[in-house]
Write the structure tokens for this entry.
Amino acid sequence: MSITKKDDYLKLAKVGLGVAIISSNPYLKIENKDVPKFYTSSYSSSIVFASSTQTREVHTMADVSIVKENTVRESVRKAVAMAGGLSFIKPGDTVLVKPNVNSDDPYPGTTNPEVIKEIVTMCFESGAKRVIVADRSGVLWQNTMYNMEKVGIAQSARSAGAEVLALDNEEWILVKPEGSKYWVNGFRIPKLVTEVDHIINVAVVKTHSIADFSMSLKNFVGFIHMSDRMFMHSSGNIKEMIAELNLAFNPKLNILDATRVFVRGGPDRGEVREPRMIIASRDRVAVDIIGLALLRSLGTTPAIQDRDIWSHPQIKRAVDLGIGIKDSSRINLVGSNIDLEEIKRLSK
């Protein structure tokens, strides 16, 4: 992210705090003329309270794969297979694939379209009747469908048979997950999440100028309503809030696109490296830890390079909430064409 764009983003977040607090409260009414348009993008007027949308899986051990093959297609397939495969998909199931489309920047600003295409193809091969690729872009990039088209994700997903959905004007429901400390009034998620059989979370490995890093945990920021998103970015606990919002989701598989990564900057632009790798796991904490270890192996920011990898607020809060495994001894790391011992060393 350029300095100018980063400063603008922070300014918008600070200015929007009061508006976001008001608009995120379903009991307060506010005239549209008093609110900037991007804070009031359509959401459901009927509020549904739910402590959880899906049954959360708890892992005592986590298989994590990290793979580098000759092609993106080969890497995706092998990484998914080594992480347990797609056996959870049954004939007739609907699968929601969540890419990272925060902006209109090519990968690693967004997920590599080739990765999305292969995952969609594999879902149909596993018996899925319907595959939906959906996201909601950030405040500076309001037209999500335009962004998906510009970066090629929409075309790749459709070519594999998926439906492509921009969540800008979809119906939203309010959830208040048990255990959340910083989302005292809850937050809104797409109703779509409650209507599918499985979620596959397809994030990117990259640094982030505000949250330190963006991987599987942070990818679900794209599944919360814009005013809640602005409230989160305006808070002093954004990293912990990222972890907490994951209580509302239970992805069956988490895939990290590390074909290209940001080692500095982000989330939209930064210093790029090309590891040409795919990382996969059913555990969000475990997969993010290995993503962080990969960034460390490449040389990254002091916030990641020079601190205890398990002390990052995103990771620590997720562990406290039982969203993922507790320490590196619970990671079963497997891979192909990777120095696994180096990754293991850097994940501790």
Observations:
- The chain has one domain: 3-43+54-167+192-346.
- The mean pLDDT is 87.
- The first strand starts at residue 62 and ends at 67.
- Residues 284-298 form the longest helix (15 residues).
